[in-house]
Design brief:
By secondary structure, this protein is mainly beta. The protein has 2 domains: 115 residues; 116 residues, Beta Barrel (Lipocalin), CATH 2.40.128.20. It is 13% helix and 53% strand. A hairpin with a 2-residue loop joins strand 3 and strand 4.
Length: 279
């Protein structure tokens, strides 16, 4: 009798072991697809472009972690704030166990800040596994789409250009001029560039802007038309001006500075407009 039961017990134990291993493997695989760095999709928003989410396993503590970094350009340097919080990952949710904040001083009371809020997040993946959707009912934001960060060369070129770029302000004897360049795409998928000039004279300010069509290739931006516009207030005037030209451009690996150059001219170095005070 005992000998007859033994094979059955062994078989039963083997089945239980196999089922347990299968369940363990499935659970262990859940966080694997989340691990890595993600950027907020799509690129082109100065509020979110400097932010990266990372999900990783801390081999020292044995815990999974969420890391949120924000890169803030300031003068000739880039300051990075990094917040780290422990998480628990299940098949369809991420529990952020406690909040975390990191602030790095830029100048005076101006800071670069990254933060994480304790929450229960639901998540799902796109079919190709390259996009991660986080939902947080009642949170801010309550919906976040992330794309897996790959090599910079694999990121679509126009997407990396989209957004607002700032030239250093020019201070004259009696007037200050601040120029912004905005690269964007219309609903008809036509790439455009807008120049915004803000002129300040004493307590008075004028704003002038113009738009022009552009064509963007791997390393060149071709401005297709020359346009200008001038705003007047008495003898006070402010002009925005775009000239038809082909720029060679170079984006820094961080995506926070853009250099435009043409033969025989001094390169223009623009900085992605800083929204470091926004989370």
């Amino acid at each position: 009798m005992n000998s007859g039961r033994c094979p059955r017990l062994i078989l039963f134990a083997s089945i239980v072991l196999l089922l347990s291993l299968a369940a363990w493997s499935q659970q262990a695989a859940v966080p694997q697809s989340i691990y890595g760095r993600w950027y907020t999709y799509p690129l082109g928003n100065p509020m979110t472009d400097p932010v990266r989410h990372e999900f990783r396993h801390n081999s020292t503590t044995g815990a999974d972690e969420m890391v949120v970094t924000r890169a803030c350009p300031y003068e000739s340097r880039v300051v990075v704030a990094k917040a780290v919080a422990p998480i628990e990952v299940s098949e369809d949710s991420i529990r952020v166990m406690k909040g975390a904040t990191d602030s790095e001083v830029l100048q005076g009371t101006t800071v670069c800040e990254a933060s994480i809020t304790a929450a229960m997040l639901s998540y799902s993946f796109s079919e190709d596994g390259e996009h991660l959707i986080l939902t947080n009912p009642g949170g801010s934001p309550d919906f976040l789409e992330l794309a897996r960060e790959t090599k910079e060369s694999e990121t679509p070129t126009p997407q990396r250009l989209y957004g607002t770029w700032l030239l250093p302000a020019v201070n004259g004897r009696d007037m200050r001029v601040q120029i912004r360049w905005v690269f964007y795409s219309t609903a008809e998928r036509q790439d455009k560039v807008r120049q915004i000039a803000v002129c300040t004279k004493g307590n008075d300010s004028l704003v002038s802007d113009v738009d022009a069509s552009v064509r963007v290739s791997k390393d060149e931006i071709r401005v297709l038309e020359s346009v200008s516009h001038e705003q007047h207030a008495g003898d006070f005037s402010c002009q925005a001006n775009i000239v038809a030209v082909t720029w060679h451009y170079m984006l820094a690996p961080t995506g926070l500075t853009l250099t435009l150059s043409t033969a025989g001219s001094k390169p223009m170095v623009l900085t992605r407009e800083d929204e470091s005070g926004l989370n």
